Amino acid sequence: METFKISEMAKEFDITTRSIRFYEDVGLLQPKRQGSTRVYHRRDKIRLKLILRGKRLGFSLAEIRELFDLYDTNQSATQLNKMLIIIDTKQAALKRQLEDINVIMTELQIAKNKCHQALNIEASDNQPEP
Asked: What pTM value is reported for the model?
């Protein structure tokens, strides 16, 4: 079974070893130990990838832990329904953010166009007359 050191994980995901230890402290990662050395497996690598992706998407560590807990246990209908609620809630929030981003991008493009127009007018005003 392929194993990884904490330094290898940190380098691969471009994060600090301190961040990885923090995720371990809060229960999101559970590497094996060989003496005082942490030994990470493929499962830990996948979980770290999901943690980082979840954070980028706006999930809190508590939400990520809850999703991991729901996934790791025997998935009853109650747990799956709860997971669906969490996913639906996050999808709705991300959709609102995407709409906000699109509005801001449009407004920024309008402002950029106005700046270009002003610069073109200014440039033509500063040209010597023939």
From this structure: 0.66
Q: What is the 3-state secondary structure (H, E, C) of 57-105?
A: CCCCHHHHHHHHHHHHCCCCHHHHHHHHHHHHHHHHHHHHHHHHHHHHH
> How many angstroms from the chain centroid is the CA of residue 90?
13
The structural domains of the chain, with segments of one domain joined by +, span 3-72
First CA to last CA distance, the chain: 80
Q: What's the CATH architecture for 3-72?
A: Orthogonal Bundle (1.10)
Q: What is the pLDDT of residues 35-82, one digit of tens each?
A: 888 999 999 999 999 999 989 888 889 988 888 887 777 677 877 788
